[in-house]
Specification:
Number of domains: 2
Number of helices: 9
CATH superfamily of the largest domain: Vaccinia Virus protein VP39
Shape: globular
Strand order of the largest sheet: 3-2-1-4-5-10-9
Radius of gyration: 18 Å
Strand content: 15-25%
Distance between the termini: 41 Å
Largest sheet: 7 strands, mixed
CATH topology of the largest domain: Rossmann fold
Bound molecules: S-adenosylmethionine
CATH architecture of the largest domain: 3-Layer(aba) Sandwich
CATH class of the largest domain: Alpha Beta
Number of strands: 10
């Protein structure tokens, strides 16, 4: 189930939250960043939800050195309960899926810093292209001189598990939605995605190629919003970044950015 339904879905879906906690974010970034010495490093977990990155670090990130920012007020409150020594910041910025009541283009609140590491796992996989650029630039400005910003993205055409599944990342996502409805067929969407540099999947079924897509702002129920970028496109979008393939058996690539000089 998509993360958004665990927070904004039906009572039944929200009850599943404790069973669906993800782990592996720390190990993922540890590998992507070349196993740095984390001791005393200040870490900003952007879109960190309830702090599963911190929980998974097994003490390698100290709660005192950790700050989490997220647009889900309930997740931030839950994280604060779990790790009261860490810093938890609710960011009331519009996100069509996670915070549809939020303020469009709301600037980041004062977070202190600078930060040695700013990490965003599966956050810009749920934002528009413009939001990604605006937020990445704001985050980059918060880096210490030797700091690094690392965020994940999903390449629609990349085959993450060639042995297990002959499909690409977009097919994997579409199958999860469409398998629940045997009468529908996702293959036309897959066909349309051929050659896409990036694409957005709105509500699990509407595919927009090289476009953020559109949605109804007045939709009462939670809506999923998945954005995919090819590695080549992301490299063009952030020319001074380093793009790395997935690690840890995951499907997400990583984009690593240094402070502006
Ligand atoms: C798929 S979840 C990943 C959560 C967390 N990074 C993890 O790995 O467990 C995406 C998270 O990004 C947050 N998010 C989306 N847009 C955001 C924004 N503009 N600023 C901060 N957080 C955002 C969501 O609220 C959600 O918690």
């Amino acid at each position: 189930m998509d993360e958004v339904f665990l927070w904004r879905g039906t009572d039944e879906q929200r009850k599943l939250r404790p069973l669906r906690r993800k782990s592996g974010q720390f190990s993922y970034f540890d590998q992507q960043l070349g196993c740095p010495d984390w001791t005393g490093k200040s870490v900003l977990d952007f879109g960190g939800n309830q702090g599963d990155l911190l929980a998974g670090s097994d003490g390698r990130i100290r709660a005192e050195d950790y700050c989490c920012v997220d647009v889900l007020e309930e997740a931030v409150a839950e994280g604060r309960r779990r790790f009261p020594q860490a810093r938890w910041v609710y960011f009331d910025r519009f996100n069509c899926s996670f915070n549809p009541q939020g303020i469009a283009n709301c600037p980041l609140p004062a977070l202190g810093g600078p930060f040695d590491l700013i990490l965003a796992y599966s956050v810009f996989t749920h934002t528009t292209r413009e939001d990604m650029h605006d937020l990445v630039e704001q985050l980059r400005a918060l880096l210490s001189r030797d700091g690094r910003l690392a965020f994940t993205f999903i390449d629609p055409h990349h085959r993450s598990w060639p042995g297990d599944d002959d499909g690409n990342n977009l097919k994997w996502r579409l199958q999860r939605v469409f398998d629940a409805d045997p009468l529908s067929d996702y293959k036309p969407l897959l066909e349309r995605s051929r050659g896409a540099q990036w694409c957005a999947l709105v509500g699990g079924r509407d595919l927009f190629v090289n476009d953020n897509g559109s949605w109804r702002d007045d939709a009462g129920s939670a809506m999923s919003y998945h954005v995919f970028h090819t590695a080549q496109f992301l490299q063009q979008e952030f020319p001074d970044s380093v793009i790395q393939p997935p690690v840890n058996g995951e499907m997400q690539h990583c984009c690593i950015i240094r402070p502006a000089t």
